[in-house]
Automatic annotation (TrEMBL):
Pfam families: Peptidase_M48
Record-given protein name: M48 family metalloprotease
GO molecular function: metallopeptidase activity
Top-level taxon: Bacteria
Matching InterPro entries: Mito/Outer_Membr_Metalloprot, Peptidase_M48, TPR-like_helical_dom_sf
Keywords: Hydrolase, Metal-binding, Metalloprotease, Protease, Signal, Zinc
Domain Peptidase M48: 90-267
Known cofactor(s): Zn(2+)
Length: 503
């Protein structure tokens, strides 16, 4: 299992504050004592008692909720949806009982990926950028899902017992402490915490081999080119041998070997080869992440633009060219050069090329230049054509609000909440529209839902209490009282969860 290689400075400061004591204890142990031994322990009753699948999921959800406040988290809806859908295709071929997989991107240029408890998987932007085709990306993701499916995190925590549980308790303590203040440093440290715990679990060769084999089976069942995993790992091994001084973070955290490579290659030869064609989404997401991994650094963004411009000139593949020019336009948007962004957009759409991410870019260009009427027209047309694309639903909602059409926005956003129940952003947008319409009770209730979904339970309770004081409707007050009791129960459950790990 890989670890996040470069947590943000905010993460590092928070780790030092929250996890210093337990990590000092952990660092006093020899590495052999921290690494998982060859051969995996039988999960049996021990794992069920100490870290059941349900408890592991709860832990992952708690970490993930706060991870979304991390400045390195990439919340772009199109990227989130693409990666999670890719993970869903793979896990469909997993052994029975596999958890739901949620995949997200992290703003980091190093080639790496990491798993968190409960089926949450982070992928560095650099890994997607380095993949030459979609099967390679799917192969690495399948390996990470293999760790999740085989419950290697639970096994590692159970194996290390008290030392690991102390680290988990420290993590939960920081998560719970951050819930009352979303601006607290602790609210942006979860990636670093998860990575620090992850680094203590150093999986054995057997665990890595088991993840390879499980991942290979999923890759094959999903119809990808099964050579993708071995090809990507092999290229990273070569890169490491060429740059022995620094090495490669992926090969350090996933100790590759000739034996493992041979095993993957032999398995690839033993099954029928799939003729897989990369989806256009892969190219568009890869181009956007090449720009986003710069983190807003002016020179790095410009370097990404120049690289993508060069690729667009050299490629003969029409889809790749359009995607690279889309990346160029995205880069100029980040630099607020809308004239150059519009020029790149026009080049990307020449020859009747279209894609839902290009359609979203057109909306963003119109909004950036203050043409809200045109933005709304574009957003509605794109949403009608690609109704399953989350980013276009956001585009319609944002365009309605920017155009001052909040009554229409309320109807549209309520519809989207029914379709995308896990999207907290729609709740926040709905709260804003209700506020502009003067419906303070509905605004605060929806803001409470947003806070609850993002883990800020005390803030959610406060919003509900304000709504109750404003409301004059007995039945509405009763509903709010029930919501408050439910949130308070959830707060107690979190506290009990923390006590369980501390005891």
């Amino acid at each position: 299992m890989a670890t996040l290689s470069r947590p943000s400075s905010r993460c590092l400061r928070a780790i030092a504050a929250a996890l210093l004591a337990p990590f000092l204890m952990a660092s006093a142990l020899p590495r052999a004592a921290l690494a998982q031994p060859v051969g995996l322990p039988d999960l049996g009753d021990s794992a069920s008692t100490e870290l059941s699948p349900r408890l592991e999921r709860r832990l992952g959800e708690a970490i993930m909720t706060d991870s979304e406040h991390d400045p390195d988290y990439i919340g772009d809806p199109a990227i989130r949806q693409y990666l999670t859908n890719l993970g869903g295709r793979l896990v469909a071929g997993a052994p029975p009982g596999a958890p739901d997989i949620r995949v997200f991107a992290v703003r980091d240029s190093e080639i790496n990926a990491f798993s968190m408890p409960g089926g949450f998987i982070g992928v560095n932007a650099g890994l997607v950028v380095a993949a030459e085709n979609e099967s390679e990306l799917a192969g690495v993701l399948a390996h990470e899902i293999g760790h999740v499916v085989q419950r290697h995190i639970a096994r590692g925590l159970v194996q290390q017992k008290q030392n690991s549980l102390i680290m988990v308790a420290a993590l939960l303590a920081a998560v719970v402490a951050a819930r009352g203040n979303s601006q607290a440093p602790e609210a942006a440290m979860a990636f670093g915490q998860a990575a620090a715990i992850d680094s203590q679990l150093g999986f054995s060769r057997d665990a890595e081999r088991e993840a390879d084999r499980t991942g290979f089976d999923m890759l094959n069942a999903a119809g990808f080119n099964v050579n993708g995993m071995a090809a990507f790992f092999g290229r990273l091994m070569q890169l490491t041998s060429v740059n022995e001084g620094t090495g490669n973070v992926f090969t350090r955290t996933h100790p590759l070997s000739i034996e493992r490579m041979s095993d993957m290659q032999n398995r690839a030869r033993s099954v029928p080869q799939h003729s897989y064609t990369d989806s256009p989404d892969f190219y568009f997401v890869r181009a956007k992440l090449r720009v986003l991994q710069s983190g807003g650094n002016a020179q790095e963004t410009l370097d990404a633009i120049r690289y993508l411009e060069s690729r667009a000139r050299d490629t003969t593949n029409g889809v790749e060219r359009a995607a690279d020019l889309y990346g160029v336009a995205t880069g100029w948007m980040m630099r607020r050069d809308y004239a150059k962004a519009s020029q790149a957009y026009m080049e990307a759409t020449s020859g009747a090329r279209d894609h839902f991410m290009l359609a979203r870019l057109a909306v963003d260009l119109a909004l950036a230049q203050g043409d809200t009427a045109h933005a709304l027209e574009l957003a509605r047309a794109a949403y009608a054509r690609w109704p399953q694309q989350l980013t276009l639903a956001y585009a319609v909602g944002e365009s309605l609000q920017r155009a001052g059409r909040d009554r229409e926005a309320v109807d549209f956003l309520r519809e989207q909440i029914g379709r995308w129940s896990e999207e907290s952003g729609f709740r926040q947008m709905l709260a804003n529209s209700y506020e502009k319409l003067g419906n303070d009770v509905a605004s605060r209730r929806n803001m409470a839902d947003y806070y609850a979904m993002t883990g800020a339970l005390p803030a959610a309770v406060e919003q509900l209490q304000q709504a109750r004081r404003i409301s004059k409707d007995f039945y509405e007050q009763s509903q709010i009282d029930a919501q408050v009791r439910d949130l308070q129960r959830k707060q107690k459950e979190e506290q009990d969860l923390l006590k369980r790990f501390q005891s």
